[in-house]
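For reproducibility, we list the full input for the protoporphyrin IX containing FE complex.
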Amino acid sequence: MTSQNARAEDIVAAFNPMAPDQIENPYAMYARLRRERPVFHSPMFDLWVVTRYEDISEVERDTGRFSSVGALDARAEPHPSVRNVLKQGYAQFLSLVQSDPPDHTRMRAVFGRALSPQRIAAMEPSIRATTNGLIDGFIGDGQGDLVQQFAYALPAFVICDLLGVPRADMQQLKGWSDDKTLLMSATAPIEQQVESAHGFIAMERYFKEKLQERGRKPREDLLTLLVPPSMGGTAPLSEQEAVCNAMDLFSAGHETTTGLIGNGVWLLLNSPEQLKAVKEDPSLLPNAIEEILRKEPPVRGFFRQVLADTTLGGVSLPKGSRLFILYESGNHDETQFSEPDRFDIRRSDAKKHLAFGKGIHFCVGAALAKLEGRIAFEQLLQRLPNLRLRTDEPAVRRPYLMLRGFEHLPIAWDVPA
Ligand code: HEM
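The corresponding predicted structure, in tokenized form, follows.
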């Protein structure tokens, strides 16, 4: 083995997006991987990791070679004790993001209606009211935890309202959704995965009941649009697809946006000149949001399955290989973005980031996420004078394979007179 190869093998072995230093700042390692081993097999996760922007885009575009079945799932197979619990529910998780055409095309049409631009735009007043209601709850304190008191609740309330489930159920749903994320990351100890599998099944039952209710008594909400004929509705879905999509919508609709808000506040508070600029000119916010999504994407990557022997980036991939397409790395690819590690809210090409994916699976909630982000940043910056990071308490990032965001982000501000 040459010394060049030996070094490349070392970084492959060191790749562990769950290690605290790589959760904190994985970008230097990704830069080396893009140069030296852009597509490689990680023995630790048994996944082929794809790090270059162009290769990730090729995977996203070519749904004939790369399947999305299991796209949320790091596990090839759940552990038998986890499977034992999961068999109380549906045998397979059939949702939009985890499907290929023609199923994907059929399901996506339902979402197009449910999350149409008109529906999203009409939500602005209620999102602003929710945002201000949350800020009212802590503005007098002068300090707090941005994630626990704000970024966590805002998107969760918004997705509850959109789905049409009571806000009182938010904490319960959030717990189950965390179970679902933990289960699919498959990095937790088995006992914890078993516990999460119970949460997963409870979430399935919850949405099945709600969909049955909507079948009997339709309402003006997104759940009603998902009710299939077998449950009394008209959506071109099976019962299983309706339940799985409702579950995915709750998870996709909030934890990602929590990441956007937390990552954005952290980036802005660490860049005083840019913070000042957006405060003085809020019209800079839309591009700042694109740059936040590029610099610190809330979804680190997604999974794919190789349908037939193929090559990617010059590397042979056998049929059945599981890929981890790492947006987090693609968004820092120096062949696409100049000085990619620099945060620059005026970057003219920030928008071509991969944070929402590409091609047929492009995030169907992107407009809603950006609307929530814009309202959140506008209100926080307007209402919390001299907003700053606290130095007495550390910011803590969430330890997930797929998600990038904070669990705790301690902040302080001057209490308005
Ligand atoms: C900043 C927030 C968000 C980020 C970073 C994000 C990220 C993504 C990404 C990367 C994909 C593509 C997955 C792939 O290619 O396999 C995706 C798809 C999806 N997202 Fe989002 N998302 C966000 C917010 C939302 C919201 C608010 C909703 C729901 C209201 C949502 C619902 C979905 C759904 C249903 C899909 C599947 C689309 C398909 O497969 O056709 N997302 N999202």
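DSSP finds 18 helices and twelve strands in the chain. The two ends are 68 Å apart (CA to CA). Both points were considered when choosing residues for closer inspection.
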